């Protein structure tokens, strides 16, 4: 608004609101990129997608939703339970995979997660699967061993797409997590969970503005269908309603 001339006839409040809308839309559109895995699979198969995120953000459920979304579009999906750290992580993923009738590659607790990811990729190649989804252990930036393990999984599995799962209700914490994972693995995009419980979903603006990272998908509920592609219009409508 600086330097803008305003006549007395104009409605200042509307002018400010319109200017704010325009600025926010520009930020969101600049860093928004629609992801069509179907198109990418045509170029590279198996297409390897790796998921990151701290415990409690809804990563396991998000992977199940992502798998369902791909299966619904006719793709053959296999999942790697490479979280060999957290108790019951593999069981949780196994329940989802059983419901969705999607194969799961598992490892021993305390075992090497990178080998689980590697085995899943080899299995996908030999059995003709289109997409490999890799789960990883939830990490905090204070745990150096897990951080090194994360880098090793990336190095060995060479994912085509690295997705960070963030809880939209975490506010500034989510931004700190995003910065940490950017330093460690430099992910490609974000999936925001629990956005149906967040009144506005403003974290999408912070991610786009501060980190130049696109939000690719949003979780809007509990069912497998409740993962949808993110659009700037979706956030704009909530912010200004």
UniProtKB/TrEMBL annotation:
<dbReference type="GO" id="GO:0003924">
    <property type="term" value="F:GTPase activity"/>
</dbReference>
<dbReference type="InterPro" id="IPR027417">
    <property type="entry name" value="P-loop_NTPase"/>
</dbReference>
<feature type="domain" description="SRP54-type proteins GTP-binding">
    <location>
        <begin position="214"/>
        <end position="227"/>
    </location>
</feature>
<keyword id="KW-0547">Nucleotide-binding</keyword>
<comment type="similarity">
    <text>Belongs to the GTP-binding SRP family.</text>
</comment>
<dbReference type="GO" id="GO:0005886">
    <property type="term" value="C:plasma membrane"/>
</dbReference>
<keyword id="KW-0378">Hydrolase</keyword>
<protein>
    <submittedName>
        <fullName>Signal recognition particle</fullName>
    </submittedName>
</protein>
<dbReference type="GO" id="GO:0005525">
    <property type="term" value="F:GTP binding"/>
</dbReference>
<dbReference type="Pfam" id="PF00448">
    <property type="entry name" value="SRP54"/>
</dbReference>
<dbReference type="GO" id="GO:0005047">
    <property type="term" value="F:signal recognition particle binding"/>
</dbReference>
<keyword id="KW-0675">Receptor</keyword>
<dbReference type="InterPro" id="IPR003593">
    <property type="entry name" value="AAA+_ATPase"/>
</dbReference>
<keyword id="KW-0472">Membrane</keyword>
<dbReference type="InterPro" id="IPR004390">
    <property type="entry name" value="SR_rcpt_FtsY"/>
</dbReference>
<dbReference type="GO" id="GO:0006614">
    <property type="term" value="P:SRP-dependent cotranslational protein targeting to membrane"/>
</dbReference>
<dbReference type="InterPro" id="IPR000897">
    <property type="entry name" value="SRP54_GTPase_dom"/>
</dbReference>
<keyword id="KW-0342">GTP-binding</keyword>
<keyword id="KW-1003">Cell membrane</keyword>
């Amino acid at each position: 608004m600086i330097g803008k001339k305003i006549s007395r006839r104009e409605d200042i409040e509307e002018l400010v609101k319109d200017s704010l809308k325009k600025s926010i839309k520009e930020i969101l559109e600049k860093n928004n990129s629609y992801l069509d895995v179907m198109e990418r699979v045509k170029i590279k198969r198996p297409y390897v997608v790796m998921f990151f995120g701290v415990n409690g953000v809804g990563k396991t459920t998000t992977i199940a939703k992502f798998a369902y979304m791909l299966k619904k579009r006719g793709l053959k999906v296999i999942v790697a339970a490479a979280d060999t750290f957290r108790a019951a992580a593999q069981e949780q993923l196994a329940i989802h995979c059983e419901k969705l009738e999607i194969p799961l590659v598992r490892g021993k607790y305390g075992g090497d997660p990178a080998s689980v990811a590697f085995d899943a990729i080899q299995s996908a190649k030999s059995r003709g699967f289109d997409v490999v989804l890799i789960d990883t252990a939830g990490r905090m930036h204070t745990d150096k061993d897990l951080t090194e393990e994360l880098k090793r999984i990336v190095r060995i599995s060479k994912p085509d797409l690295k997705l960070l799962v963030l809880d939209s209700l975490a506010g500034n914490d989510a931004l700190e997590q995003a910065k940490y994972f950017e330093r460690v693995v430099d992910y490609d995009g974000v999936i925001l969970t629990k956005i149906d419980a967040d009144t506005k979903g403003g974290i999408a603006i912070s991610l786009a503005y501060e980190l130049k990272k696109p939000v690719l998908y949003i979780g809007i509920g509990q069912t497998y269908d409740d993962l949808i592609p993110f659009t700037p219009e979706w956030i704009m409508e909530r912010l200004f309603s």
